[in-house]
């Protein structure tokens, strides 16, 4: 059911627009893998999905499945399924007939199309609602029907365009678990468009970050957090520490002192660089003369935990505190900053 998806210099320039919606991106999603395309509104995420699906034509570049160029093929011949933010179900059909629509349209009998559809309704845990009108089911159930309908076409690549964004947090978590079950059962190649880094982290194997139509980062999920390619990627991944300084032979120098970058990570050329430090990985300690030392000048809640602001010279470092701990303002502390928490960028 799955295929390797390859985008080569894929571009889209909408008529009348000054800047391209998609600026020649290269991206490969291995067969059976899930890649999340993450970015703010207007970054080109949905444009990329529409080009993969064949709903829009690129102004440059190509789309290939298992090495075969499908750029010129119409959507119905690509073997690509797509689930949108809204379910877009056929209101005059029952749940099971929505799922079996493609099979029925291809000439199968009603009984044959329904028999095939039942497997996918079972997969999304809606077999008991098969005969119900789609107007009589909830929003979360409707999105499950839309997912089942797309899977019933046996797509080689499944595209998800922010399909869970309209659901409440409990339903979203239920849908995340369902996607994991589907991946285990069918191993589809999935491209997920989202603006939610949590969603990308829990569903995807890798994250591709689009900003203003440019692919600024693509890596495994963990590396997107700890080794973002730019400050913009760092902020999108929730990073809040950006320390200006100077890089020399893999060591960043600033008011924090000399901090070594991970030897196995990316290291820019010597010169001005911004040190990015994951706030969750810093630890406040009583202190050692060898550690950066500063004063806590503020704290704010962040869910079960809180963020402490530590002033060290001209630099403010934000530290996530363990659950149940406090950080009294005015306390002098040391900061234990592991190399794995650090990366340096030049833009």
Automatic annotation (TrEMBL):
GO molecular function, a single term: ATP binding
GO cellular component, one term: membrane
Key word Nucleotide-binding present: yes
Keyword ATP-binding among record annotations: yes
ABC transporter domain ranges (all copies): 5-237
Source organism, top-level taxon: Bacteria
Gene3D superfamilies registered for this protein in UniProt: P-loop containing nucleotide triphosphate hydrolases
InterPro entries (UniProt xref): AAA+_ATPase, ABC_SmlMolc_Importer, ABC_transporter-like_ATP-bd, ABC_transporter-like_CS, ABC_transpr_FbpC, Mo/tungstate-bd_C_term_dom, P-loop_NTPase
Keywords linked to the UniProt accession: ATP-binding, Cell membrane, Ion transport, Iron, Iron transport, Membrane, Nucleotide-binding, Transport
Pfam families: ABC_tran (PF00005)
Residues spanning the signal sequence: none
PANTHER family: SPERMIDINE/PUTRESCINE IMPORT ATP-BINDING PROTEIN POTA, SPERMIDINE_PUTRESCINE IMPORT ATP-BINDING PROTEIN POTA
Protein known as: ABC transporter ATP-binding protein
Lineage of origin: Bacteria, Bacillati, Actinomycetota, Actinomycetes, Mycobacteriales
């Amino acid at each position: 059911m799955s295929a390797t998806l390859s985008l080569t210099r894929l571009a889209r320039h909408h008529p009348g627009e000054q800047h391209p919606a998609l600026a020649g991106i290269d991206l490969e999603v291995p067969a059976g893998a899930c890649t999340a395309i993450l970015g703010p509104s207007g970054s080109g995420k949905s444009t990329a999905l529409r080009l993969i699906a064949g709903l829009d034509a690129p102004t440059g570049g190509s789309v290939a499945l298992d090495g075969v160029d499908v750029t010129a093929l119409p959507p119905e011949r690509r073997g690509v399924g797509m689930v949108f933010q809204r379910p877009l179900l056929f209101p005059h059909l029952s749940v099971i007939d929505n799922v079996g629509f493609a099979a029925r349209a291809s000439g199968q009998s009603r009984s044959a199309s329904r028999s095939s559809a039942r497997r996918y309704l079972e997969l999304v845990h809606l077999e008991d609602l098969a005969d119900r009108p789609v107007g009589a089911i909830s929003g979360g159930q409707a999105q499950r029907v839309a997912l089942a309908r797309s899977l019933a076409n046996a797509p080689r690549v499944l595209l998800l365009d922010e399909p869970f964004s309209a659901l409440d947090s409990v339903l979203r978590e239920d849908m995340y678990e369902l996607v994991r079950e589907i991946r285990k059962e069918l191993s589809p190649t999935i491209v997920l468009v989202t603006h939610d880094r949590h969603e990308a982290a829990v569903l995807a194997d890798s994250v591709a970050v689009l900003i203003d139509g440019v692919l600024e980062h693509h890596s495994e999920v963990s590396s997107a957090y700890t080794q973002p390619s730019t400050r913009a990627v760092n902020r999108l991944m929730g990073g809040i520490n950006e320390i200006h300084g100077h890089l020399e032979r893999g060591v960043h120098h600033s008011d924090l002192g000399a901090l070594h970058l991970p030897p196995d990570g990316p290291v820019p050329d010597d010169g001005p660089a911004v040190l990015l430090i994951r706030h969750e990985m810093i630890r406040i300690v009583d202190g050692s003369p060898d550690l950066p030392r500063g004063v806590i000048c503020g704290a704010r809640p962040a869910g079960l935990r809180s963020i402490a602001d530590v002033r060290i010279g001209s630099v403010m470092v934000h530290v996530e505190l363990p659950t149940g701990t406090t950080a009294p303002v005015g306390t002098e502390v040391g900061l234990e900053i592991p190399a794995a928490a650090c990366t340096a960028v030049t833009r």
